[in-house]
Fold each of these.
Amino acid sequence: MTMKRSLPLLLFILLLSFVLKGQTVIQNPLPIAFGDPFVLTDSDGKYYMYGTGGDVDKGFGAYSSTNLQDWTFEGQVYHHDNKNGWGIDAFWAPEVYLRNGRYYMLYSAQWKDNPTQELENFRIGVAVSDKPTGPFIDCYDRPIFDPGYPIIDANLWFEDGRVYLYYSRCCYKHPVESEVATWAKNKGWYDKVEESWVYGVEIKPDFSGIIGEPKLLLRPPLKMGISDDWESRSVTSREVNRRWTEGSYLFKEGHTYYMMYSANNFDGKNYAIGYATSKSPLGPFKKASNNPILQKNGLVTGTGHNSMAYSRDGKQRYCVYHGRTEATGHQRLVFIDPMEITDDGKLIVHGPTIKK
């Protein structure tokens, strides 16, 4: 039997094993037109999903579910023109956290304070609601902080009374010297290659500002011909002169911090997910040798910007991400696939899968 013919059988056996264990098998893709999906498990065990897009006007919508498979649209839960709204468009990557009985939404948007008329003037803000279905109202009439460059993709980690914010510095006006940049220039493709990097910083518990200076945690590789070459496919495929490191998502297993992240063009087929590990929430982080852990497979492309959810019994992890199929075209849809950490600490996502 050839590998090509045996692959569907292996996928079937894998999915069957999860059924036999009593776990939910998601029929992908879900009919939810979100990019950057984030799932909150509420205190009552109900799931709420937030994301970019989804046919809402300058804001964010939400879906609810009891089983991760069947979702109900809850309407638009955040509107840009709330009393403290500071964003004007490009509302991306919302994440919602339950803290002390209230729901806090972190998100990025184009800041209206733009005296130099930057094309990318993205910053990160926070809004609050008494319900997971909103309405969310901005806590402040400004972003959380201004690092002097555009930032997106907020993610939070809470530990020992401290709060950590992770975000991505945008590629915009950020050219970086590297072997792939020199290679692309020598081929006559691009004069420069811009990059986005993931940073981490402690923030105040009321989300009003940062504590200390942001710390660089992840960036694209400087050299070619190594295991991290997958992060340069947007350039090596001559798609665009940018390399992304974005969509970070942090969780902890034992004494190890796992940071999942996405690389390559979010709007292209090569978008993929990797991870890095650390013994501290602010690094240093070491990229895994088995990256990428989720990428295109011929049926699904553009797999990236994930969050994580658990089964109702807490025994099974799921990777929640967006992707595209040939049938659905360029529209991003939500996928949910099982993920696990092996005995030797490797993070594995069993996907992308698709209902045939």
Amino acid sequence: MTIIDGKALSAKIKEEVKVEVAQFKEQVGVTPGLAVILVGDDAASATYVNSKHKSCEAAGIYSEVVTKDSSITQEELLALIEDMNNNPKLDGILVQLPLPKHIDTTIVLEAINPLKDVDGFHPYNVGKMVSNLDAFLPATPFGVMRMFEEYNIELSGKNAVVIGSSDIVGKPMASLLTNAKATVTVCNSRTKDLSAHTKAADIVVIAVGVPHLLKADMLKEGAIVIDVGINRLDTGKLTGDADFEDCKEKCSYITPVPGGVGPMTIGMLLKNTLKAAKLRDKRESK
């Protein structure tokens, strides 16, 4: 059994980005820039945004965090995004989710220039991703694919089960696995007999936010488990959607929580931001 070390891999990716950013600045004299909009005072979101900001600075990427009160109107938020779309210092824009209930998340995400959509949530990028064309990929599924690559895990011809069908993780994860020639089954809260699907799977990716939903008796011997879930128990301890202690002896590879998929997200976001800057330079130099 191999534990997939997302923390170490993320550090490696951040270092790669730092080197590439320095080279890019030297070659074209431009600093890649990322703006994050945080609406409201959700503590978890604020912590995550702060982590993104620090990671940008460490990689040499210009970082701008704009914090707005939860009472902001949708029109005001859209106007802010439009300003950022037109700001030449910014290559990437992302709106930290979730947004307050009075704001339509779909309208807000669609307002971001697809060429600055480093979160990969705009329908333009989603469509290109599904079609297996070059696009900005959502950071978490992108990070999972990078893990497979790093650990030389072959996806072609494998049976993969994705538990969870969210727009942020489940759906894009299924698309990326399909594009990699895996045979993909997507399960959700309405799925009957989840175990029947997982027992046939070579790879299980779980992202539902239910602590310890996935147990060893739901897996076949040698399965690969990628746990995207992060749950805080009453004890304060962080744990995943898979029962790590129960599952680990049955797996060939497994990600821990914390220290697995979580750290990868920011690393891939930095890669997307650098990519956006390079694409902009390419367009402007034509």
Amino acid sequence: MNDITAINPKRILVCQLRQIGDVVLSTASISLLHKKFPLAEIHIYTEEKCVPVFDNNPAVKHVWSINKNDLRNPFKALAFYRKVGKAGYDLVVDFQQLPRCRWMLLFCDAPVRLSFNPPWYNRFLYTNWPESIPGGYAAKYKAGVLKPLGIEWEDAKPQIFISEKERKDAGLCLASLGVKDDEILITLDPSHRRYTRRWPAEHYGKLISLLAERIKNIKFFIIYGPGEKDIAVKVKSISGLASRCVMLEKAGSLRLMAALIKRAVLHIGNCSAPRHFAVGVGTPSITIPGSSSSAWTFPSPDHIEVVPELECQPCSCESCSRGDLACLNDLSPEDVLVKVLDKL
């Protein structure tokens, strides 16, 4: 491998295809690249659903959007990969080494192609990689890929940039649901596709009911994604708060979600993408992680986890070997309430 600390790229491609939370985490590394190479154009290579993460980001010049349906045709796919690979990059940073990244790199003639330490069968695609990457916060780990460039993490946060129009749209959305500008707003994310990372809807409902008893001018906005509305409805029903607990009829866009979290004084939720949006827009957060590790929590008093004292937590498993989901079920709404009141 060559020493690349002195390179001065004019065009950089960053590859982070999915998932949405991981894409948000990659924005910390993008800001570090922009700081190191302020005159370079930074382009992004990502899946279509993740493109809105980069809206309004001053460090990002262009986004290559991967439409999976379009790429089912192998000829169209190869043409797309070639178009991206031949777009004149001096530096490629690949955070995932997924098949669609590797296909693109087959056509790429960038003199520096950087990634994490690749398995032997991928090494011909890359010119440089760090020999080791420190653990800890996930965005820090991701930024460890940049070490051969002389870039250190330096507590860089994920960044989501909200425009003034998006702020106003969020305000209009809340007004249509009966939320006033002077009312305290908390966003709530009670859903997760993995049951080992989903605090019971009954607990969320009880938590916000207890909060509403103590703070009279508070309202709650429930966030949900496609296929998750039933959980949101259940939380609202259990809370018994009627107009003080609001939600959309249909799942909103990522940009609206980000703007609503920006408006909130606190975000409470499971270990999923909205917690990373909270960090990105500067809203304090409380996460009930379940089986997730603390590597997903930004190291700051503004962003905390609430977990019971169990030897098996975190297990990072998709099933519970105990069979009782104690890390979720035994964490009472009253336990979380104490932490919320501290924040408020």
